[in-house]
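Contributing new records

If you add data, match the layout below exactly. Sequence lines come first and carry their own label; structure lines follow with theirs. Keep one chain per record. Anything else will be rejected by the validation script.
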Amino acid sequence: MNCLRQTTFAVLAAVVFVSCEESSQKPIEEKFEGILQMDNMCNVLGGDATDFLPRPEVCIDTTVVPPVACPPKNYSLVGACPNPSDGGTEIQFAISEIDSVWIFAYDRPGLPPVDTLFNQGNRRPGVYTVVWQSPNGPGIYRIRMFTASGFRSYGDVQFTN
């Protein structure tokens, strides 16, 4: 009987220890550190290579004249063109199947979004563009894309005035 109590106590202590250890881990905090610099044509110029991932997989149908873009092969939050911007910028995204898409802009980590850039369901596969202007003036804003199927991406946009 004493052995059973010791075993039960040991198991309970282990469960409490593991649950305390798991709850003490904090989620990784996103940092608004840099931007992926892009020109007006959405060419990457440099900067934060971790923004706006994954990059879109490009497909061109050359069986027709003139060649045309195929439906996208993957989900992506393409980026902001231009970035940085002194006025409006284009936020592009691609979806490869019918899905609901939400894109929000944040000016501070952990706070509600300052703007909703896109919120619509049942879109056809394709590449879409949203023209956006800073709602709060100069600064760096985090753009986050979510879909109902579970895709997530983010990147930073800088407005200079």
